Amino acid sequence: MAVAEELSTKEKIIKAGAEIIVKEGLRKFTARNVANKIGLTDAALYKHFPSLDDIIIQIIERYIKKCSESVDRAVEIGGSTVDILKQVMREHISVLEETRGAVPILCFEFSRSGNKKFFDILHKFVESYKTKLSAIIRIGQKEGIIREDINPEDTAMLFVGLIQAKTFAYVMENREGKIIQDPEMLISELFYGILKR
Fold it and tell me: Where is the HTH tetR-type domain (predicted)?
C-alpha cells in the first residue's frame, strides 16, 4: 500500500496544504486548491477543518512539537554536546522534509503580513527553540568544545537561519525532491564554524 493511501483525510489535507504553501504561496492556499489536490470538495474539506487557518495552525503546531521534542530527545539520549547538537539538527532537517518546508515559508510570510495570531505562535516557537539550543551551546562552551567567542543565542539562530536559507533556495530554484540533499554535509559545514580547533 502506498504511503499516501495510508494517510487519513485530515493528514492528506495537511500535507496538501503544506505543499501548496511551499510550491505556490499563500495566495494559492485556498479551500478549492487544497481540496482539488486530494480529490475532495470544498465542503468535504470543511468537515475536517473549520477554516483554512486551522490547517495552517496544524502545520505549524506539528512542526513546533516535533522540533521541540527533538531537542528534548537528543538531550535525553545524551552523548557529547556536539553529538546532541548534531542530532537536533538531523531531526530538525527530518521535520523540515516531512512538512515540505512549509513552516520556514510561513515564518517569512507572517513576519511581514501583520497577522499577529500566526506571528505570535511562530515567534514563541523560535524563542523557545533558541533558548533550548543556546543552553546546550553554553554547555559546549564550558566543556571547551565550542568556541567561547560566539554568542550562544546568535549561534542557535544559525540553526534556524540555515534551515530558512535552504528552504528559500529550494523554493527560489523551483526544485523538486529533498530540500536538503546532504544533511550530514550541511551539519559539518555548520559545525566547522562553531567548534574549537
Answer: 7-67
